[in-house]
Amino acid sequence: MDSITLNETSPLTQAAIWNNNVSEFIEFARTHSDFYKKLYSSLPSGPLTLSQLPILEPTTFWASNPTTGDGLPTTPHVDGVVLASGGSTAAPKITLVSKSELQAVSNYISSCLVAAGVWPGDRIANFFVAGDLYSSFLLTSMGITGCPIPLVLLPLGFGLTPQKMISYLQSQQATVAMGITTTLAKIAAALLKEGKVLPHIHLLLFSGEHLYEDQRGLIQRAFPNAAIRSLAYGSMDCGLVGRPAEEFDDPKVHKVNHPTVIIEIVDAEGNAITEPGKPGTIVSTNLCRRLVPIIRYPVGDIGEWVDHAKNLFRVLGRDQKEVRVGVVSIEAHQLRSMIEQTLSDADRASFHGAQIRLERKELRDQMIFRVACAPADPEKVNLELAEALNRLKPWFKDHVAAGFLHPLVVEWVDMDGLETAVTTGKTLLIVDKRL
């Protein structure tokens, strides 16, 4: 199907106009946001390019909580929505989205639906997460109902049992289902356990989680006629960063959401990478986000260019700065600090380091704290660490209770039990064995 046509006054067209003058966008943020005014205070006045700007440090960025009116917003928030993502209870990631920005995202998701392969008349079961300031259900539902081709929305959410989800897929004659990959896998497992398949569904769309090979095989068996594709690549922090790359079967490959988003892939020193196949940190600038500007923000993933000139990139996995289990994101330094602070003074004397290990088990993510320490009472500290994690990230226990994640596991080891980098010998903070 042809791409969606834009009218002259749509938010997409406005964003395209903004993209023609990146320096104007930077100057706008610098003038109207106290945060950016301070951040760029040492830079020369006049037009600036992205390469002249520092890459944002997420902890500092979100410390300027927009709900308090301190620092980030460029104008008062008088219309639109308030959205939240991961973060500690002390410093939640709260962002403000204006009405025009919200409509722009909705339009982009509509175009992503078309690119991903929806057909006119499709009946789409939306199993994304709703409520608690989550954005995925709201935005995808808007994208479906606002799509220029005729579609029917089945607004189901993710809080149902797999059996209830299956019942709705059958009774409402759904032809497309969308949600996080864990939800799709739970539905598939329930179907296969009952000896059933759903051949009438032709398309499964996921976002918010990586698709693992164990999930793909399971899901494909339960939905034998369905293509499994990424709906979009993005986050509450950065907005919609990438669209489905229709010419690739690999769901990790996306097209940059041009013209509103600029993607950079940078090395450890912050230098731009343009050659294909060389991994680096994905950094995003969203020219559509003018209420709370996002300029050179690390998305939290490692990626590589497939074709820089064509804006094609591949997402390789999570950056070492952030842990993501299921749809729960936690900054790695917070976990490392939490582990050490939970230890008593006596136990801390034998503490030699910690590692966060991520594994796949029974189609779910599992987080393991591997701690080089000899505590006097390991079982007591295990309980204290679990309680500390629940305070830091209440959503973690909620997702464990819902069956999306395994409970936390703590392993006490000596220094040799911590995995190190082959090239440098340095202890790795995060060891991801899922991909």
From TrEMBL:
<dbReference type="InterPro" id="IPR000873">
    <property type="entry name" value="AMP-dep_synth/lig_dom"/>
</dbReference>
<feature type="domain" description="AMP-dependent synthetase/ligase">
    <location>
        <begin position="85"/>
        <end position="283"/>
    </location>
</feature>
<dbReference type="InterPro" id="IPR042099">
    <property type="entry name" value="ANL_N_sf"/>
</dbReference>
<dbReference type="Pfam" id="PF00501">
    <property type="entry name" value="AMP-binding"/>
</dbReference>
<protein>
    <recommendedName>
        <fullName>AMP-dependent synthetase/ligase domain-containing protein</fullName>
    </recommendedName>
</protein>
